Here is the input.
Amino acid sequence: MSKSKGSVGRRGFLTGAAVTAAGMVGAAKGLAQQELHPAEPEAGGSVEVAGNEKPGSDFMVDVLKTLGMEYCAANPGSSFRGLQESIVNYGGNRSPEWLTCCHEESSVAMAHGYAKIEGKPMMVMAHGTVGLQHASMAVYNAYCDRVPVYIILGNILDINFRRGNAEWVHSVQDAASMVRDYIKWDDTPVSLGHFAESAVRAYKIAMTPPYEPVVIVADGVLQEEPLVEKGLRIPKLVMSAPPQGDSSAVQEAARMLVAAENPMIVAGRVARTPRGIELLVELAETLQATVKDQRLRMNFPTSHPLYGDPGQLPLSPNVSEADVILGLEVQDLWGATHQMTPLNRFGMESRPTTKNGAKIISISAVELNHKSNYQDFGRYVEADLAITGDAEATLPALIEAVRKGLTGDRRRILQERGTKIAEAGRQWRQRHRETAGVGWDASPISTARLSAELWAQIRNEDWSLVSWDRMLSSWPTRLWNFTKPYHCIGTHGGSGIGYGAPAAIGAALANKKHGRLTINIQNDGDLNYAPAVLWTAAHHKIPLLNIMHNNRAYHEERMYLQILGAKFNRGIQTSDIGTALDNPNIDYASIAKGYGLYAEGPITDPKDLAPAIRRGIQRVKSGEPVLLDVVTQPR
Amino acid sequence: MKAAILILSLLTMVASAQTKPGDTARGKTTFIQNGCYQCHGTVGQGGLAGPRLAQTRLTLSGFTAYVRNPNPGNMPPYRVKVMSDQELADVFAYLQSVPPPVPAANIPILNDGR
Here is the structure.
């Protein structure tokens, strides 16, 4: 904005001795003059043109650079156009680099996937109104999955700066209120100094376990008005040490575990960092205890002799043989230790799946961030020992206490127990291999065949599976060898469908600089929510191999209807109504080609699968995103 | 309870005795149309949502008895009203007709992984 006589900067506008109607008119007039004659000098003196001034958004970019933001995923919007311009022109479109998204849900889900590979948040921008409305489900997913996402919302709080209807309908009193139930913290800064402090604070809060999304509202006027605030500084980012469990409670947990005849570890979102995997292995080996993994993070190597049989629903581990159950950041610990009457809610019954007298120990940081409205906290667990603290941060003390409690005799007993667990492991692995051969040549292609064909071609690569495999009957977990932190990134968290494709692309972006081969086994129903994220992958040259798990239905819901129909003796042939994705079949290869991807399919003959995967991997290695449409069995 | 199950099983056996031998083709159609494949796979290969049924070791009467009165917590009972004994016999025939699984030892990519 030109500093002509008639113009009023935002600082002056807010802090002037008298804010007059004339001043406002003058401000509007000055803006109009600048737009019409940007470089025309006023009579009798020089004039600073707008291009010589720094807007407030330049300072905001300085702040974001100190936080190490690599990327900013956004669908462009006028309420944050100032920040966009500064990121691109002032910041050089680096740290953060702008990622063009076609839907705000995709922006947030990309950040969700990215954070689980990179271990830090990606920035997302959106309108404080319609953009956040689009994004809200993805924010909820990240919240339930305990993943940091750094969201900046554009908004124009001051009515004097809203131009026309579009900026009125895109403005809101309290932008973050829409998602406040499922973020960890938010603020609406009213000055650039305030922005700097809150931006740094938000990062720190998001990255203190339990990790969660945060929101900062960047006022549109603050972004675009000249940077006149004096004494601006960016606070130093000082990260908090993660909260550890109480030391006496940890000692008690160790005593219970050492004394147990058959302890079992149930792992939820344990490994926040690669160190978490090492610690869980150390604890399991020290105790010689089975690890039942919910596969919500890469917690434990699947080939480890103590890895529990994944041939059951991942969220319902078989805990019936354990006398002490140690739950580490478990999602729904009550559900993991109880069984309920399935599906129908008539005569609902529940019973523990633990044996009589079994003790439950819980270690989790989630209790530090409980909220009331959304019920992601699950049913109350009558644990015998509940420790509030981050599991990964608590494990070193627990391991040390367990070691101190082990006598020579006890160690020998534990070794015998470990030998039995390892033998059971050999048996279930062989059983799963044999089971994979059932329906080997079937068409639609079995999920076991798909998983085995894929594994055969990636096992010697530096691969990263960025999709959950429960919808494939967990075949990758049953057949592959997951060892590295980026081999598994869990799932959506809030069961909000539409997470899969964008999260995979965000994760692939994080993998790109490491040269990893990213694999996404993509559910068809999920892709249909916001398929244009494929274009984002093509546009930004994000290499990944998408393999469609194209079972042509919302099968989980279809099974529910089937079960209910049978329960009530009616309509077992109508479960396709409202759940099928056929007639016509969706041509995912054509869709992907339209968005600029290399694509093949539909592949219906299992014999065609291996050559297609081979071609796909070659293209991915050349830096492209690829999609192979594979028509599959339901599960 | 045990008596009730016994009576149900006996009634099932009587009913089964009145059905014609299962028709494989018809059984496949019924298996798909009635949605059995959703949990058990189109060739009865099974998955985490439902166990393998291909080449089941159950007899027809045992299979029928289970479908009519499954373990609580697994699947709901499928009564005669929605699936007749003849349809179950057909499905049973189809499941028995599915080619036996390829032994893992004969599938190289299942043996070089982990």
Remarks:
- The two ends of chain B are 46 Å apart (CA to CA).
- Residues 2-100 of chain B form a domain with the Cytochrome Bc1 Complex; Chain D, domain 2 fold (CATH 1.10.760.10).
